[in-house]
Amino acid sequence: MADKIEIMYSREEVEKRIAEMGRIISEDYQGREITLICILKGAAFFACELAKSITVPVNIEFMRCSSYGNETQSSGVVKITQDLDEPIRGKDVIVVEDIIDTGRTMNYLLEVLSGRKPESIRICSLLDKPDRRVVDVAVDYTGFVIPDVFIVGYGLDYAQKYRQLPYIGVVNQDAK
Ligand code: IMP
Ligand code: MG
């Protein structure tokens, strides 16, 4: 049976919020150049949309890590499965994520990336589920703070499905 997906934020709401985030980031980084590190696959849609609203020079890099299998529960183990191919030493870095859940992935990534001596490093996430936090993570730019529900769309998947939905939706727990 098909999963039932309920719209939480429409395409218009999501795109409006991302454009606002891009404007704020552009103001904060006046006169600088940003290295956006997009965490694949989930943040791909968000990072590309965000980059379009940033008016200072932007360089997009990609990195991939895994902490989830095809389950909705975190394994707690984070692994970098595709690293950056450029050094970030001396760069103004913004790590772009789809969602901060337990915080384990971002905590691990921050540790690894800070060790490479960027000039600065900030976190930007489309979604934040603070109720689920296991490890403390300070998010600098958040799109939407949401309750503990399972989200799909705008890059986020459920067993690799639904990333292409142009809105943010909740998967109905009963239909899962
Ligand atoms: P964390 O390490 O627990 O913070 O998990 C972060 C990762 O878990 C995200 O980058 C997502 O890939 C995945 N994740 C967490 N919550 C959701 C959700 O509601 N929908 C889809 N993926 C999620
Ligand atoms: Mg992810």
Topology:
Elements: E1 5-9, H1 11-28, E2 34-40, H2 44-52, E3 58-66, E4 79-82, E5 92-100, H3 104-114, E6 120-128, E7 141-145, E8 151-152, E9 168-171
Parallel strand pairs: 2-3, 2-5, 5-6, 6-7
Antiparallel strand pairs: 1-9, 3-4, 8-9
This protein binds inosinic acid and magnesium ion.
What does this protein look like?
By secondary structure, the protein is an alpha/beta fold. It has one domain: Rossmann fold (3-Layer(aba) Sandwich), CATH 3.40.50. The chain has helices spanning 11-28, 44-52, 104-114; strands at 5-9, 34-40, 58-66, 79-82, 92-100, 120-128, 141-145, 151-152, 168-171. Strands 4-3-2-5-6-7 form a six-stranded mixed beta sheet, with helices on both faces. The chain starts with a strand and ends in a 5-residue tail after the last strand. 31% of the residues are buried. Inosinic acid is lined by residues 42, 67-68, 74, 97-106, 150-151, 156.
Shape: globular
Radius of gyration: 16 Å
What class would the helix/strand composition place it in? alpha/beta
Could you estimate the helical fraction of the residues in percent? 10-25%
Chemical compounds bound to the protein: inosinic acid, magnesium ion
Domain unit count: 1
Mean pLDDT, all residues: 93
Reported CATH architecture: 3-Layer(aba) Sandwich
CATH class category name: Alpha Beta
Find the CATH topology.
Answer: Rossmann fold
Euclidean distance between termini CA atoms: 9 Å
Q: What proportion strand? A: 25-35%
Order of helical and strand elements:
EHEHEEEHEEEE
Low-confidence stretches: none
Number of strands: 9
Number of helices: 3
Largest sheet: 6 strands, mixed
Characterize the quaternary organization of these chains: single chain
Strand order of the largest sheet: 4-3-2-5-6-7
